[in-house]
Amino acid sequence: MRSGQRGVNLGFLLLISQLFRVGPSNVPPVTVATLGLNIYLFLVPQKQLLDVCISVQNAYIYKDWTRLIFSPFYHADDWHLYFNMVSLLWKGIKLERRLGSPWFAYIIGVFSLLTGVVYIILEMVLTEFTKDPSYIRQCAVGFSGVLFALKVINNHYFPGGVAHVFGFPVANKYACWVELVAIHLVSPGTSFVGHLAGIVVGLLYTKGPLKKIMKICAGYSGSRSSPIRPNAYNAYTPYNQYSPNNTYSASNEAPWYEPYTGGLSEEEQYQAAIRASLNDQGSGHAQRRPNYGFNVPTGPLTEEEIRQRRLNRFEG
């Protein structure tokens, strides 16, 4: 049975504006499908948030394991949806091109479930360590745990470089940890443990046994006939732009944009789209501040600045 539909508001309109400015045809299919599922469940939720949010009490004690499936795809409000989906848009474009659509879909499915499992384990550990029973009742929703995991593997496949967290340069390999703390300090209402669970899942994939286990479960043997395989350059031709020897070309990267404030990487700050969308909404709407501690950039770069930074990036 469907719950009541949500109203459309500024965060949602900004998200749709960004999607159209990027162009749906420029976004790989699994990323589009994941965006679509999140947006649909926000506009037409099938359950109330309290019926899908994940906690030790609800999932483990009461054995409501369906929350592992639903909790990542529900969002508290339009700004929660907006920032998570903008982050997914740019991570998805880069990673789906790099890994191929079948393997990226596999990652999304596994990470969505596993971040919930790790979240429950971490909350149980905190409860035992602090003797504070409130941790077992902390209920979380949203895709940000999965996004933190994707950020870890994005930094693994695209190493090096510098991210700017609230204006401070941070090496990409440490950016996840700095963002974890910074976002929680700026917006205490966010789930610190949920984000930490995502980082743990990402590290299990890049440094631990998770990737190997996933390959075994998928029947991956290293042969080109395997049903699901990472780095499959021909898995989805329009979005897997690789040379025949399966090497990645810098010229085929997703569009790059200037650094952000508030926990999003440089490619996630589509500044021109944000500013243009805010201007379209009028000054009255532009004064509203997001609820999750993110700040809208003060203005877009000029074309010359963007071109110069792209050259510097590729030369570096």
From TrEMBL:
Instruction: Cite the InterPro entries for this sequence.
Output: Peptidase_S54_rhomboid_dom, Rhomboid-like_sf, UIM_dom
- Coiled-coil annotated spans: none
Keyword Signal, does the record have it?
yes
Say if the entry is tagged with keyword Membrane.
Answer: yes
What is its subcellular localisation? Membrane
Q: Organism's domain of life?
A: Eukaryota
What residue range is the signal peptide? 1-25
Q: Where is the Peptidase S54 rhomboid domain?
A: 64-206
Membrane-spanning intervals of the chain:
103-122, 181-205
- Bilayer disposition of the protein: Multi-pass membrane protein
Identify the Pfam families for this entry: Rhomboid
Chain residue ranges for the region called Disordered: 279-301
Its principal location? membrane
**Keywords assigned:** Membrane, Signal, Transmembrane, Transmembrane helix
Record protein name field: Rhomboid-related protein 4-like
